[in-house]
Amino acid sequence: MELITSIFGAATIFFLLYYYFLLLRRNPTHKLPPEAGGARPILGHLHFMRDAARPPHFKLADVADQHGPFFTIRFGSRRAVVVSCKKIAKELFTACDEAVSNRAETRASKLLTYNYVSFGFSPYGRHWREQRKIVAAKLLSSRKIERMSHVSAAAISRSVKDIYSRWEEEGSCKVLVDMKKWFLDLNLNVLMMMVVGKRFDGGGDGEEMRRCREIIEEFFHYVGLFLPADAIPWLWWLDLGGFEKRMKITAEKIDRVFGEWLAEHRRNGSAGEDGEQDFMDVMVSTVRGSNQSSGEVDADILIKSTCQMMLLGGVDTSAVMLVWALSLLLNNRHVLTKAQEELDNHVGRQRRVTESDIPNLVYLQAIIKETLRLYPAAPLGTPRSFIRDCTIGQYHIPKGTWLVVNMWKMHRDPEVWSNDASEFKPERFLTTHINVDVRGQDFELIPFGAGRRSCPGTNFALRMLPLVLANLLQAFDVATVDGRAVDMTESAGLTNLKVTPLDVLVAPRLSPSLY
């Protein structure tokens, strides 16, 4: 047995070295973007993406300072180009948009998205176009969001009342609230109603709420990881670090939860208590009435995967952005004060703020934009893959090359945002950058991505974020414990969650009848 193990180990090392040197001997006939230094034997720059002490968007920003805004890194046998400037991003997502509309295939996305069936991670093609069209028309259209606005309004009202009830029960001048959990539970309730027609009564401490919160956190932790098998695909069977085993367990949890909900929908019919179909009902009807179920993808997997993408994607990213927005406000009290003054002037304290008030709250909207600029929910987006050879600027990009867009670095470019690019200044969106939008047309600010694979939930997020923040700031005075600054340490993963808790002291600022 020891002899067999030794022979096997030696053979593995031999093939790894052969693979590595074969890669190094490649002599491209076209000019490629400069390659970053610091590559390690065999795995290349994979350690850039797995540095526990420094998130990958920080590391890639450091490399951009050395090599410029367009450079190459290697994940074993795979090459990736990293972009961190407006000019190149604009060329990519206009002239070369179709060529970069494929998702990069990773072990995490394969294991966690039903083998790439979930349309957010599926290859560019017919399946992706059909699912995107259904999502855009049936859940995320302006008309559908408007018709479901009562869902978000009711969820926000209940969440605000929960804080007020806690304040009443404790009988102190201020109550300590875990705002990360509060934002996540609020967003989860809104999306749960829209996607599967469920609401968690009694706060966020029920078993089903905890289960949902757990799978969301696990999904976004794992789906953003780069594994050794992503660098050298035939190493997948080794499962170095045991990550793939844990990803499979998480995938089973997700499938079990969505499977239970799908079974409930088939038992109970297709209309909610208000007569409005939720998205899972729509998917059941759509699949039943089309030929998709007889195609390549099983009907149940198609329904579960699409609903999974809508629920998990929308809940986490919106909660992340609200956590960063409140953290920035707590560290910049003058901005917080100004935002509350705007609410008092335009809405007052005799009624609750509503969605119709948001267009008048221009400073609040500037706060949202500035938060999206400094802390985009997915600072590196989701890696893409070139489906054909392209020429970008003076460089040739071969088919199969991965694309990573460092939005975090791009949004802090001093040539675009001036020398105070890393400072939180919402006023810039009322003066020098008043006409800059975040929907993917102004390439200096693309927190939701750009091109045909940009985030389909942009409109929903831009309605939800200011509404939640406005309700919170109007209803409560917020402060940190002992006036301490909020720790702004960022995490590694697909979404850029704040590492430390956000425990905030909260006190009512409206009359009791308004809660």
| Alpha-carbon Rg, integer | 24 Å
Q: What is the count of structural domains?
A: 1
- Helical content class: 40-55%
CATH topology: Cytochrome p450
Structure summary, number of beta strands: 10
CATH superfamily: Cytochrome P450
Taking the alpha carbons of the first and last residues, their distance comes to 71 Å
How much β-strand is present in the residues? 5-15%
CATH architecture: Orthogonal Bundle
Tell me, briefly, the overall form.
globular
Spans with pLDDT under 50 lasting ≥5 residues? 3-7
Q: Which structural class should the secondary elements be placed in? A: alpha+beta
Strand order of the largest sheet: 1-2-8-5-3
Structure, described:
This protein is α+β, with helices and mostly antiparallel strands and 515 residues long. The chain has a single domain, classed as Cytochrome P450 (Cytochrome p450, Orthogonal Bundle). 49% of the residues lie in helices and 8% in strands. It contains 18 helices and 10 strands. It has a 5-stranded mixed sheet. Strands 4-10-9 form a 3-stranded antiparallel sheet. The longest helix has 33 residues, at 299-331. The protein is globular and about 70 Å long. The N and C termini lie far apart (71 Å).
